[in-house]
Every structure is written in C-alpha cells, then in structure tokens.
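STRUCTURE:
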C-alpha cells in the first residue's frame, strides 16, 4: 500500500528537489522542450514568479517532494489573461499512485477560485500515459502541432488539450 502524500504550495526552498524531478525530462526526453536544465537559482525564480500570479503545487511525502504541478500564462496579450497553461511532473519512483491526478484536480480548483476559466496542456507524442492522465481529469483533445519542436535529433509533435475551469471570469 502506498504512503499518503500531502499537497501544498511550492516555495523557493523547494527548487533543488523539484529541479531533480524535472532535470531528467530536460536532459533525456522530449517531454520538456528545454534543452539545458535550469540552475537551482533559475528554478527558484520560476517558482517565485508562478506563485505570485498563478499557482504551483507540490506533492510531498515524508518531507520529500515527489511531484509538482503549476500554471502559467497561456499567452501574453491581455485578452488571454483568464486562460492558463498547466503541466505536472512526478518522480518516476512514484508513478501510478494518482499523484499527478491529485495535483491537477487541486490546481484546477484553486485556479478556478482565482478566476481563471480555461486550462491548456501540451503533450509531446507519443505519450499514452500522459494523454490518459489529461483525459482522466477532464481535458479534451483540440489538435496537434506537427513537427513543432526539434529535440533529441528529430522533430517532435505536440498534442494540445483544453479543460474548462469556470464559465466566465470575475467581474471586471
């Protein structure tokens, strides 16, 4: 039986542990389109920026960060301000425990409470596990960007998904 985990808001002091989860996806996979892992300081600055405007959540077990999910700007122009792009990463030792699902569901709840209306997620293909995760939490496929990124010596396709968080933004 799996141990219970808790979910909390990320803090900059989590940067080293979260970067350790993220680094393999940068250095050895096409999951992230970064080609060089950020430094701990750069990752801490990302956490600070995200938490100030959107949300970044951490799954923690026995004082260790085992996964995270966060939201960021979908696009920069003002009319996009109620839409976010989301992502989740889980340490491989903790796959198939419902961690990403739990993080996402809590993230969506908090984002909706903050007034955000739509969430978008990109999944580098092929990745049946990630597609299944996104569909299980309410995302619907909306298209594929073909040959959108070049990493690991070849062109990569990205499937895009959309999920509604709430019907309309708060009164402006």
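SEQUENCE:
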């Amino acid at each position: 039986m799996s141990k219970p985990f808790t979910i909390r808001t990320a803090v900059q002091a989590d940067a080293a542990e979260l970067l350790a989860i993220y680094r393999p996806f940068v250095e050895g996979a096409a999951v992230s389109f970064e080609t060089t892992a950020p430094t701990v300081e750069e990752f801490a600055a990302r956490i600070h920026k995200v938490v100030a405007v959107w949300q970044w959540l951490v799954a923690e077990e026995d004082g260790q960060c085992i996964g995270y999910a966060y939201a960021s700007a979908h696009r920069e122009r003002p009319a996009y301000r109620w839409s976010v792009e989301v992502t989740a990463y889980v340490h491989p030792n903790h796959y198939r425990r419902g961690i990403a699902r739990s993080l996402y569901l809590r993230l969506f709840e908090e984002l909706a409470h903050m007034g955000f209306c739509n969430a978008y997620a990109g999944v580098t293909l092929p990745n049946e596990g990630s597609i299944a995760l996104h569909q299980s939490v309410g995302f619907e496929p909306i298209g594929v960007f073909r040959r959108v990124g070049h990493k690991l010596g070849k062109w990569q396709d990205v499937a895009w998904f959309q999920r509604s968080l709430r019907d309309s933004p708060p009164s402006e």
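REMARK: The mean pLDDT is 96.
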